[in-house]
Design goal:
The protein is mostly helical. It has helices spanning 3-16, 49-60, 75-94, 102-109, 113-142, 145-156, 167-173, 181-192; strands spanning 20-23, 31-34, 39-42. 59% of the residues lie in helices and 6% in strands. The longest helix is centred in the middle third of the chain and has 30 residues, at 113-142. The radius of gyration is 26 Å and the shape is elongated.
């Protein structure tokens, strides 16, 4: 999704909130929304995906008294920035983006780099850690000796001659917890006739 497609998508999302949208090349700001009047006006030469997502957050949260646009101490502005970045990130990931392409995300959305980096990095790391915990717990519960045997048979089938086995490399290759070291070691010994 390029910049224009993303802006078009966000404008449609704004319309779904029953906001009438007006475009004006002479409007001095990039965008502004009046929630009471259900109206948004934007300048097509200045508008960014980040700004539309920011305004969309205000609409969704029904923020009527917001203070100045760049007021970092206003909780509504802080929340709108945070939610805008998360919304844009969700769209970015849904279209194949990942943290490896963070610079592309910033270029497409025009989100403030430092703010976006801190929010996405925190979200990404929290989700990654949670998934690892779930994945490890799932493996601890579900793996049995037969599954370990099948993993090891598959692993050794890649070698013509086996001189030494690194059990940690084996576990990493099959995304197994290092807690299975002893189980894997016993199975390797049985299959290879050592010990």
């Amino acid at each position: 999704m390029n910049k224009q497609e993303l802006i078009g998508y966000l404008l449609l999302e704004m319309e779904k909130q029953n906001i009438h949208i007006t475009c004006d090349d002479c409007f001095p700001k990039n965008a502004m929304v009046n929630i009471k009047r259900k109206l948004m006006i934007y300048n097509p030469t200045k508008i960014t995906a980040f700004k539309i997502a920011h305004e969309l957050s205000h609409v969704i949260n029904k923020d009527i008294c917001r203070g100045s646009e760049n007021d970092a101490l206003n909780p509504q502005e802080v929340r709108a920035n945070h939610e805008a970045i998360l919304l844009l990130w969700e769209i970015f990931e849904a279209n194949g983006g990942s943290y490896d392409y963070f610079n592309v995300f910033v270029n497409i959305t025009n989100a403030p780099f430092g703010l976006a980096e801190s929010i996405i990095q925190n979200e990404y790391l929290e989700i990654h850690e949670a998934l690892n915990e779930i994945f490890e717990d799932e493996i601890k519960v579900s793996i049995n000796k037969q599954e370990m045997h099948e993993y090891i048979v598959d692993y050794i089938s890649y070698f013509d001659v086996i001189e030494a086995i690194n059990i940690y490399q084996f576990l990493d290759r099959y995304h197994l917890s290092h807690n299975f070291y002893n189980m894997a070691e016993k199975e390797f010994k049985q299959l290879l006739g050592a010990g």
